[in-house]
């Protein structure tokens, strides 16, 4: 089975998708993992990859062995245990309650063999929240955002340091309040408490 081309452009395209199937949600309640997976099978995140997924074998009743290789979607997390504590009694309220408040994290993993060992690699995560299915940010996008934040913080640091320093051709950079350079050399009689009298033009920053 060939690798799926998980380029960042494709993942960014996935991140723009917000999928919801109101017909499915009107018929079924998202109060168990089975219904959540059946709902996920209807979304484009799955249908565009279904031919390459082991889930198709599961849907036909076949058992997936540890040695089977391919891509597989699984529920990695759900909040059903928490929701059951405040579950409504009547069926209509219960239906709305679960379809509105249930949360499922769906992982896409690749099963493969390497050096006679069974390996599993998580490729991407999806989530079902408030009856809608989203694609989460890829690792590459998270890393890019983190790098951008670091670079932005470094730029802000340099800007702050630059405002605190002056440059002299003989001593290079030295830390000194820029406002001090306009008061150096003034006679004490020219200083009036918090006000300084000078005829020198202030340098542009």
Describe the protein.
It is found in: Nucleus. GO terms for molecular function: transcription coregulator activity. It comes from Plasmodium reichenowi. By secondary structure, the protein is an alpha+beta fold. The chain has two domains: 13-136, Mediator complex, subunit Med6 (Nuclear Transport Factor 2, Chain: A, Roll); 138-169. It is 35% helix and 25% strand. It is built from eight helices and nine strands. It has helices at 8-15, 22-27, 33-40, 44-47, 55-59, 80-83, 91-101, 139-164, and strands at 18-19, 70-78, 103-114, 117-129, 132-135, 165-168, 172-175, 191-192, 195-196. It has a five-stranded antiparallel β-sheet with strand order 1-5-4-3-2. A hairpin with a 2-residue loop joins strand 8 and strand 9 (195-196). The model is unreliable at 1-8 and 189-201 (pLDDT under 50).
SSE layout and pairing:
Layout: H1 8-15, E1 18-19, H2 22-27, H3 33-40, H4 44-47, H5 55-59, E2 70-78, H6 80-83, H7 91-101, E3 103-114, E4 117-129, E5 132-135, H8 139-164, E6 165-168, E7 172-175, E8 191-192, E9 195-196
Antiparallel strand pairs: 1-5, 2-3, 3-4, 4-5, 6-7, 8-9
Protein name: Mediator of RNA polymerase II transcription subunit 6
Subunit structure: Component of the Mediator complex.
Organism: Plasmodium reichenowi
Overview in brief:
Helices cover 35% and strands 25% of the residues.
Largest beta sheet: what is the strand line-up? Answer: 1-5-4-3-2
Q: Tell me the fraction of residues in β-strands, as a range.
A: 25-35%
Q: At the fourth CATH level, what is the homologous superfamily of the largest domain?
A: Mediator complex, subunit Med6
Helix-strand pattern, N to C? HEHHHHEHHEEEHEEEE
Number of strand segments: 9
Mean pLDDT: 77
Number of helices: 8
CATH classification class of the largest domain: Alpha Beta
Rg calc: 30 Å
Residue windows where pLDDT falls under 50 for at least 5 positions: 1-8, 189-201
Largest sheet: 5 strands, antiparallel
Class by SSE composition: alpha+beta
Oligomeric state of the chains present here:
single chain
Keywords: Activator, Nucleus, Transcription, Transcription regulation
Organism: Plasmodium reichenowi
Pfam families: Med6 (PF04934)
Protein name: Mediator of RNA polymerase II transcription subunit 6
